[in-house]
Protein 1
Amino acid sequence: MTALLDIRGLKAEIDGRQILNGLDLTVNKGEIHAIMGPNGAGKSTLSYVLSGKPGYEITGGEVFFNGEDLLAMDPDERAAKGLFLAFQYPLEIPGVATLTFLRTALNAQRKKRGEEELSSPDVLKRVRDLAKQLSIDPEMLKRPLNVGFSGGEKKRNETLQMALLEPKLCVLDETDSGLDIDALRIVADGVNRLRAADRGMIVITHYQRLLDYIVPDVVHVLSAGRIVKTGGKELALELEATGYAQYQSEAA
Amino acid sequence: MNAEIRAVKTAAEIGLADLFAAVRKDLPGGSSTEAIRSDAFDRFAAQGLPHSRVEAWKYTDLRRLVRDAKPLASRPDAAAKTAAGGAGAVFAGLDVRRLLIVDGAFVPELSDLAALEAGVAIRATVEALAAEEMVLPLGMAGTDPVAALNTALAGDGVVITVAAGAVVARPIHLVFVTTSAAPAAMFTRSRLELGNGASLTLIETHEGPDQSDYQVNAALQVDVGDKASLDHIKITSEGAAALHIATLEASIGARANYREFGFTTGGAVVRNQLFLRLAGEGSIASVHQASLLSGRQHADTTLTVDHAAAGSQSREVFKAVVDDEARAVFQGRITVQPGAQQTDARMMARALLLSDEAVANCKPELEIFADDVQCGHGTTTGALDDQLKFYLMARGIAEKEAEALLIEAFVGEVIDAVARDDLREALSSKMLDWLKGRE
């Protein structure tokens, strides 16, 4: 069986600084992988390199997404193939209504996949149903994307996008940052509803707390741009108790 | 020592003097009009075509940009009238009263003059001039050399009067269209008198063939009565080789509300100069303008807002999207006269540069002679935000489409200022057409 995501020896740098240092990771359909690690380990860089953010230079390694060369694709192609990055800091886009953005994104992906575009009422219905599940006020959908949204509203909006776009691989970059416990529960419930046999997830987090709500199958420790330890969900609890110090020295 | 140095006349200046000498006897109007024209031409000739050392024309050097004087366009023949029929299509299908000005001449038989609303009168400028009406003299704009040239050579246009209290629901659309394939110049003068408490939406569109080398010098003078309400919308989408200079002079009465909207996409060289005077207490004016430029286009908006009475308010928002090697210019000056206390004025100019060779020159100015006012201005120039673009692309939106969304959002603030839904939607689709042209 072809892995959903297969990262082999990935090296990447930005502004001449090497951040990823020969990273290996395989994610199969139906699996949730947590990636934990200290600040500066390369967690966000991994999410950006996977989604194709400009500015990162790949200096080694390969990434296969459903057997295809992911690194050769533009960011929008990656999205259409089913890769979704939930941003740590979702951006505000004044002048672009949230609903317009959602419809444009969904239909752009469908068009690229050769599927029929959905009518505005169809999109609206889907969005409204999902908004309800995520306790998003429908009025918010008329407002410019993320403008004036609270931290919790932005993360719920990311989760709404993810649910609407139905990706094959979800990469959640520190989704818990800036969330109070209630917002965290709503977002985690939204993510858990997306768990499916044909979908994989990478949950990047600094804290174990999120993993109480989104329970992973595998936990990896990332340090200095490499996976230095892999274990089951109990590894997260261990890390909570011992901290990252031992892995930082190990990597150094 | 203070030597007056006058440069040698350019070919265009000599050509304009020859043109005026040749046609002055044939221009519409009686002897008093002729005196006004003659006086205006002298004012032009004394200054010549403005150049970069003239502050108001700093970025639009007409001595360099205008190579020659074109002959006056001939009055439209049957073929020209047929060609003009489809003009003003941007508002096609909307319930507007279309008045056609073809090659500089008002054409009643192509215009909708049926069932005029009570209090509305529409005449050709030539008719008003023949009756020796004082259509031509300008106020604030009078010292500008190009406006003076318009006074000297004005041929035709439309004179509209709306009686006090008349609320005109159906917009009037002045469709200016050039059909001439041969090089030609058009000097039009129009005038709107809006009585106290009256209300009107006036649209102007300007267009012409891409292959034709023509020059437009259009002037509109507007008198907004006390408590009157005017929406003025001007769309400049001239042909690719055209020179378009438009002068707008408006005087705004007490507690009147004036909303100006401008949208420029076409023309090789475009200059929109606006002279607005908030003449009455508590008057309100807003100016929203957008220029979408590509190729080697050059578009200049130069705006003077004169707060001459107490408690007046003005808002100016100018946005330019500049691609390729095009240049956008915005000069905005707010003046507050000594008696104009409690003036509230704010001006913002923003330019979005889509290529490394694109240029934007923004120069906002404040001149304040009163001590109890609130005035502010700002200007920004930048490229599309890469972070925002990546966010959109990461959701599956292709690069060009992501850029279009961001440009649309940037210009949207200006288009949103158009109050009527039908006009706003027509303008949005015109903007989308421009964006499609980029792909």
Protein 2
Amino acid sequence: MVASILVNGLVYSGVYAMLALGFGLVFGVGRVLNLAHTAFYMVAAYGIFYFASTGFGMPLAVVLTTLGIVAAGIAVYKLFIEPVREMEATVLIATLAVAVLLQELVLVFFGNEPRHVPPALSGFTQVVGVRVGNQEMVTLVVAALSLIGAWFLLSRTKLGLAIRAAAQDREVANLMGINVNQVTAIVMGLGLLLAALAGIAVAPLFTVEPGMWMNPLVIVLAAVVLGGLGSLKGSLIGAVILAFAEVSVVFLVPGGSYLRTAIALLIMVCVFFIRPEGLFGSSIAEER
Amino acid sequence: MKSLICCLVFSVFALGLSVSGQVIRIGVVGPMTFIQGIHHWRGATLAADEINAAGGITVGGTTYTIELVRVDSNEMQPGPDAVSAVERAITASKVDFLVGGFRTEAMLAMTEVAADYKKIFLIAGAADDGLLKGRVDKNYNRYKYLFRITPVRSTYLAQVSFILLRDVVETFRRELGISQPKIAIVAEQAAWANMIVTLVALQAGTPVDKGGFGGQHVGTWRPSALATSVAAELTAVERAGAHIVFTVFSGPVGVVFGRDWGRLQVPVAAVGINVEAQAQGWLDATGGFGAYTATAGIYATGVAVTEATLPFIEKFQAEFGELPLFTAGTYDALYILADAIRRADSLQTDAVISALETTDYVSTLGRIVFDELHDPIWGPDYITGLGVQWQDGAPKAFWPREWQPDPAKLPDLVISTPGTVPYVIPPWVKDHWQGK
Amino acid sequence: MYYGRYLLRYLQNEILVLPSRVIVLVFVASLVAFPLISQDPNLLRMLIVTALFSLYAVSWDLLSGYTGQISLGHALFFGSGAYASALLSSHLGLPPYATIPAGAAVATLAGLLVGIPCLRLRKHYLALATLAFPIMLTGLVLAFPGFSGGEGGIWRIARLTSTRIEEYYLIVGVMLVAVFALWKVAGSRVGLIFHSIREDETAARALGINTVRYKLFAFALSGFTAGVAGALYAHSSAARIVAPGVVLSLFMSFQPVIWTIFGGAATIYGPITGVFILYPLLDTLNVVIPKYRMLVFALLVLFILRFMPHGISTWIRDTIERVCPSCQVRNIATRRACRACGVELRHMQP
């Protein structure tokens, strides 16, 4: 039982962490609560479905999908979000409208029926007595590599320093000679890249359908606030906590596995009673 | 304003046609952007074209042709759309009859509208007992307008799936020598599934001579109907040591289940209800991993339930390139309606209702006779449905085959529908349990 | 006779001078007179839903637009109002005039219950915590299907009135009265305090305002209003059934936000404008181009927000009227001098 929870929880953690990190970065630096984040993840899953079915070969399909997503996402950001960036509620609705727009475009082009993407590695392996699909392993590896890559970028490069500075204090970073707008666009691209990779990695695992962005969105939002807005470490830990909460519900209360999201959110709300600023958020961060 | 103009145009149009008096308008209700709704529409158009080509419906010396009105209930999306669509169809498009429908909660609301306007609604697509039970029997005058064509109500659907489960349990006993197979239940979280789940859980462990399955119930999992992965649930099922998993799915989670089950080669045999597995695109949707899934179904390759079945399936396949889904039962609904109108020799609602109540019609699904709830009677000689398993890339029927509906009282009654094949235990499941 | 003349003068001096007031007058009059023009049940039903959703949108504006306590889970209040009245109607057979106040009371309670823990949360934390509540309530509804009807929902809900016209007048009447009352609240000292909480809560506290009490009041009032809308919806001819997939959905939570931001936040009339444009539009698109309805809808929202980020009604108001720089009285944009103090208005930015 423990092993099953551990293994399945890790897979979900990987996916949620990728999404949460991208979302958290965009929020931290751009101050944009991007409700369309997981919609790009959905489009990426469709992208890989489309390119894979037209016979491009996996590596090329992955490259084309990620490039497409990043380009489209930045275009949308420049066109619709940046001009209204100062008004938080407007940004909220604009990003929601983008999400609905993407969903509807996908609906028009691909229709409603659930799509299937062939796994990169089929079959399964027994890990400590638990049956794990090889594709799950692939997903986990992709997630781990992306996260390590993001960590390296953020902590070991000059660009990473600029990003972290902008996340800490936009105005001061600007004064320090960092081109904040440029950094924001780069971070936007980075977030989209992570979303696209997550979408590609889960496409063979989850059903590819136009509504597949809703549930991850709720979980990602919860993970990011649970960890504390603006804290990247917090986002990751929040994602892991919620993933394990969901999986534990499935194993411990089988009759209630439809309650997994509700219970994960309950945990988030309970944490708020104790720490209103999330696990790793700082209470001063509000005043920025 | 636009909708006002729209309504005006519609009503003028409708008025013009009803004055000429040659048309019976039938609203086909369904989620038209989803496969279920598309099949609603396809089944209905096929029937309407056939009936019209054969000279339409003659009532009191006047010949009427059928005109279909597409009613997009958008019922997959939550909201007041379904009610609006039906009311608009009745008041603006002036439909005389309604057929179709899919989701229970939308159907409950839409049939209320039909009852308000006293329009006959032939349900083709929703199984919930409560659509008719507690309504037609309790308040006949309000709800007499509702009839169900397909599928049979969920109590019967459950009964079929029980028989299928028994078949699979027997196969395990016979072929693998497992005397008490362990049964797990995975059912989507939906109202119509609750009763089925409770009954199976109850009977799984009951000995065979007391009417149970003589197995052992090892757990029930209820994923959301919209879950995108059930890998965790399946791992849990395997851990529970199950041999057989009984499924109850009507939504997209059925595809998810079929795919994860085949991909992870979970060593349990899946049988039960899985609506998505009735669709032609099942193997594509599951990436081929859905092979050997078994479900209660309506249509299967090469199985003639009645003499009307194969011609319909062939025509449908020729026209649209796939097997009809159960929502294409609008085809039979239109024929049954036409039959009732002819017998009533009137378009008066009450006369048509009386005629419908005395329906005895051989449809593509079986012989349709309505009971006092306006539900089609289930059983041998009436509608039974099929047990369908995906074998060799096609949906094959494995039930009714050597079926004894009542071995105690009628030991000689054995039903085998032509074209059925035996149930096959998925090879990886067989390999896993052989010799254990 | 005297009152007649007084009324006429009031009309001339206070209403006809400002285009925005004329618009409101025409709007109310045409709502009241609409059944004289058409009694088409579809149009009436559409307007009934529009009126209900206006009330719902205003309730969001009151909490989130005014006090800045962004709620992304407003369906909780709408849903608990709808569920409470539907349950009472279906299980106990109570008439609508008993169940609707009960539904509103339950929603008010829900507002307080959510408001108290949320007092500690700020901005985005609050928004996302509220997002969780309707999802948790959905879980609760699904967990007790025997009582709540589960996923299929509750039906056998008593109808509000016997005819569509009566229902129309009842719901439109309730909407107009409630909105007027809320407009008065928003224009009063309480409204000012709400504004001040949004702009700078610390400063408001420093002025001796018990912001906790006012925030809770905003939660309760907003819950109450949304609850009335939800309870009316449950009994209306548009619903017939109360199911979690409808009244507690994520979409239901986001809708008032879309309407309000689209129309213009913290204005009361903004959300109403938003609903009265967007809902009939969506309903019409559903008939004309069902396949592309949400696509067109999303594009429209995006473009309007891109070019009128403060909302459409704010944009219109700023275009047709301008504020006198010296006495802060509003004037029609075509006037040369302020109607109150006579200061020159030309060549000034609105």
Protein 3
Amino acid sequence: MYDLVRGPLMWVAFAVFIVGFVYRAVQMFIVSKKKEKFFYPVSWAEKQSIGDYSPEEHRLKWLVSFKNSMLGNYPIVTIVTSIFHVCLFVTPIFLLGHNLFLYKAWKIRFLSLPESITDFFTLIFLLCGFFFLLRRIIVPRLRAISTFNDYFLLLITIAPFLTGYFAYHQWFDYKTMLTIHILSGEIMLMAVTFTKLGHIIFFFFNRFHISSEYGLCQGSRTW
Amino acid sequence: MAVGEAKPVDKGHVKNLLNKKKGKMKLSLFLCAHCGLCAESCPLYRLHNQDPRYMPSYKVINSLGKLYKKINKVDGSLLEEMKELIFKNCVLCGRCYCPLGIDISKMIALARSVCRSQGVCGVYPYSLGAHEEDFPEALSGMGAIEEK
């Protein structure tokens, strides 16, 4: 089983990810071909220059916009989600164990962080994941829109980290845990382009799509 | 026809309207992470004691989301069900903000177009929290009920 998940299944996961990514990229390109009407015809630079404010008014303006920002509205969630997503990327890329495997297989060297730090990041990531689970269960507005998929995707995201943590600390049988760890990572990779985890990729591009004041570059497909 | 009674629906027309923007709208529905972070950006959500039914993502999922899910089986009762959500619970002010960059107001606008094309529409006093029976003359004027 270990050889299967380290060998052919890993290539299947990569292939599914790449095919899915290309499919989604083409889909996004096609749907954004037609430029939509921009109903807020004031550019960002113009917005900044409107009005002649005193320092006190500037401070007040800044306070109001901060209060209405994501950080102002949801300070805890914004901080937790930022930490969660940073850990999600940094931990697997700079993990010594992963880089040793990479070197062994393809003779590629990446920068590695000390194991104690990546171990700490994993723990933080798991705590953030647990926070999101609790939030989804407790907060009424989230309960109202949550489906089985939302819980399942959270599990898919957390599973590689949880099993990796268990494997590193050699809790339970090491080889079995390592196999489950690799398998869960492959499942996550395959799920990225075909589930809501797609926001990992499209978070950055989607903002150019919006033809409102929240959009970048005034509407769709201007990147 | 009495208030609340489902009207016959031109399924072909509804399907055409939905298919016109299918790519972009389905991609947006697919990308919604159900994070609920759009809630506070809606003035009506704040005004109604953080009632989840006023949350932008709730409105989209339960209107346009349902329309695409049942694209071949859209009927009058489905449109009547979502009428309150997209006409009363949303004023289409465009203040809704999605951290993933989804254009929520455009999606609600499409759901409204579909409803309106089938004669299902909202009335202004709804947005002030009024009930249908409080404004029979307004409703009859909009063609929502027939005069006796």
Protein 4
Amino acid sequence: MTQNNRLSSGGRIDRSQPLTFTFNGKQYQGFKGDTVASALLANGVDIVGRSFKYSRPRGVIAAGAEEPNAILQMGATEATQVPNVRATQQELFDGLVCQVTNGWPSAEFDVMGLVGKAGGSFMPPGFYYKTFMYPQSMWDTYEKCIRKAAGLGRSPRENDPDIYDHINQHVDVMIVGGGAAGLAAALSASRSGARVILADEQAELGGSLLHASESIDGRPASEWAAEVIAQLEACDNVQLLPRSTVNGYHDHNFLTIHQRCTDHLLDCAPIGQARQRMHRVRAKWVVLATGAHERPLVFANNDVPGCMLASAVTTYIKRYSVVPGERLVLMTTNDSAYQAAFDWAESGRFVVAIVDTRAHPGGDVIDEANRRGLKVIAGSAVIEVKGSKRVTGVSVSAINQLGDKALGPVKHLTCDTVASSGGWSPAVHLSCHTGSRPVWRDDVIGFVPGNSQQKQLTAGAINGTAALSTCLQEGFQAGREAAINAGFDTVPSISLPKVDERHIGAAMALFHIPHSKPTSRAPKQFVDFQTDVTAAGIEIATREGYESIEHVKRYTAMGFGTDQGKLGNINGMAIAAKSMNKTIPETGTTIFRPNYTPVTFGAVAGRHCGELFDPKRYSAMHSWHLKNGALFEDVGLWKRPWYFPQAGESMQESLNRECKAAREGVAILDASTLGKIDIQGKDAREFLGRIYTNAWAKLAIGKCRYGLMCGEDGMVFDDGVTACLADDHFVMTTTTGGAARVLEWLELYHQTEWPEMEVYFNTVTDQWSTMTISGPNSRKLLSELTGDIDLSRDAFKFMDWHEGTVAGVPARVFRISFTGELSFEVNVPANYGLYVWEKVFEHGAKYNLTPYGTETMHILRAEKGFIIAGQDTDGSVTPIDLGMDWCVSNQKPYSYIGKRGMNREDCLRKNRKQLVGLKTKRSDVVIPEGSQAVADPNEPVPMTMLGHITSSYYSACLGRSIAMGMIRDGFERMGQTVYYPQPDGSVIEAEICSPIFLDPKGERQNV
Amino acid sequence: MFYIYCPYCQEHREEEEFHAAGQAHIARPADPDNCTDEEWGDYLYFRKNPRGLHHEMWVHAAGCRKFFNMTRDTQSYEIKEVYKMGEQPQIVSEQDSIARGTA
């Protein structure tokens, strides 16, 4: 197909660079500089999708971010699929592949279209709520069909091959929008030396100057823009960001800019380049120069392809050299839209008529229309469009001065394009992102930014300013003021260039064009194209009692599309206001929220994906674990060995072997990940006594003690062993996952409650490598590695620690046990960790030293009934509930953290859940963790639940499964049977017992 | 995303370096053992949720590790002041000043 609608000269496209692209499986040609939308229009493609609800054919309406219809699925391969791409913003490149998002099975013929034709009464607003809610069980089925028919785009099923970046920036003046006001602001701010960023969503900076008819200093406006851009480019303190949408304006002048770096080049970014970049900008001052969006008028069948915004017609002709039709009818309430008709006529195509809703339009444009011989029909409106897949004509009628009544007679005009303009809505979106409400101005016929907490100025059309000279003046002023406010005192002022512009006549406040039939009987008059909301729909919503504009929005879905109602919202509010006999400011607006336009997940994630999603922490022995076939478990950010399978072993076989080695020979665990906090100061001991539930006053130098830590509510939150190094020096260990939280907890109490105490905390987790050598042969093995530590039973007692050397390396050795066996915990400086570990293995070979991981550690400790804070506790468990009364002191003079909490009425009552052991009736069955306990499995649902399983394993040493769990009043129920119903309908029967399954007297660790 | 001035580091830093740590100026009762359950329950669980000025505690977790206080408008998110532990706010809401007067 040839580009029938392309003019032979003019525009900002490069005719020497033809590009081929594929739309809906068919190849088309365009030029460098085109958007997908301009190229489709050049090729005479009318239908770019089907509407959401009624499945009506839809064409391109706009030329920018506000486009509701030309929303495409883009991507040449599965991995590069991008949904919801606005064809009006996507630049064309060679080989681009896209297709319509809506329309099943095709946009040209659509089964849902028949539903749409059946008329408004078939699918009123609230239709989905009312029709598909019941029966609830059917919703899944409904949803699939509705989604498929509606077509909301799809995400790729393969991994995105592209990389995305984040960049943090700090600037003095951030300018949003690169049109007349934005460029002027950048120019004046840059002169002060302030660091400036100017971001604009379009490929080319310049905004409306690129197609403006006005001249600046006697030259075309686009030349002035080019000169200013060149000046700014030459400034070291200015960063210009085209193709960069400021998608969010957040608290304390934090803005996010979504920059599309290569989306205009290729389907997939060139190797080594980021496809998109998210700038995270903290700005001292912000200038919003975001411009305005033209409002279409709401009239019958105003969605038929060929209906467009007047300014879009101008943009396509002047920038892309594309005239999107042959015969134009223009309907307007204001002067600015006349330009579309002038441009149309200048391209040699026929302007059928300019239909002006004003009875007596009087600006300079009227004279110009007359001079050009264009027919102006005043005091009239296009009340209805004819045609289905393309406009074939319009009905024009005189209207009354209020604009709410079609007076007739109705005349028919033949045309293929209808441009409309209801005036301009300032793009207030960003100004609203942090909660500021926009303010209605009758003279602007639109909402302008309201008061803001942000350090923000506004300039240009966002203020409702129409005249170019005023936009420039506001821009210069705002840029200068922003720089001064940001602390720059020498800001030379710039003299305003001379702008040659027309005198502008008053506009008419009209949104909804009356039809000769009442709204409910007239053909559909669309307000929000993307969600198929009509004027009649809004009237129904208000009639049904939805009076708040937020309710109207939710009932009708107005503004819920990916365009967030940029075109339709103000018209919708005006219609809602009129039907409730309210003013527009009384009705108010809905709230605009980030993002301004859709942002890809890639840009949000940046490099925080895949390998870099989270930091990883490795112990010093990690390379050894890798070499020896460890499988890993994530604990916090740590990679901990889970178990060390040998060839041909199942997981359970590995665990059985590792457990037996620890109980019968010798085994070793890398415990480096446990949190370690160095505590010093003369009040350190007293501090420990206030933080832990047990006593610390008498812990002698050279001794260790286990402690429980509670919150003020008396609930256990962490535990660990603390060693006394000196009277004013302790080392605390915490759970692996709790290390950071415990340190913050200690700091909190020291800084806020007990600042008079002399005590200091520092994390030393990374400074030490810790290896736990456990089992009957552990003493023999360790004695080969140390000459200066006496390991004998009496010289080195259980819960002692000694300083000395291990494998020649300075070490702290703790005789503590989390396995219940004779056990030594060797701590060496982390830089020697791997060396010492390997030395231990050299000597350990003859004892068949077995490495074990977290899973075996869990089994061994569960055999002994030792808890894991965070697994056997959940924030609702006191030390007493755990049966750990021995770890709670009532003698301490200071009311330590948790004491008062655990003595509240609820914590003292009978019948609390308590931690007990559970033995399954069938010894080989392992109860799944989390299983709920009931007393009677035959009780009708909902059953009385007694508690749940917190830890459950198969113990090779005991030859049976073991479990720990909470049971209501468990201590009193020893020997009773409880039942654990499973999702598959089976029931596991278990007997309540002591959680200490092995060696209840603790003899094994005391050898 | 707040931009927070740490009164100890004496610099503005990004919110990512800080944690919110709840309502400020909640002193631990001097004699917990003689508190009634109700008094202890108030200390544990009852917090203000004002629309407007609020005094809260923050910690410069990824910085100096110091806790400090902040007076913040919960409606506009404006940070009115930051002040060190043990200091009193300069900016208080009308309700707060009434409460203080009668307390």
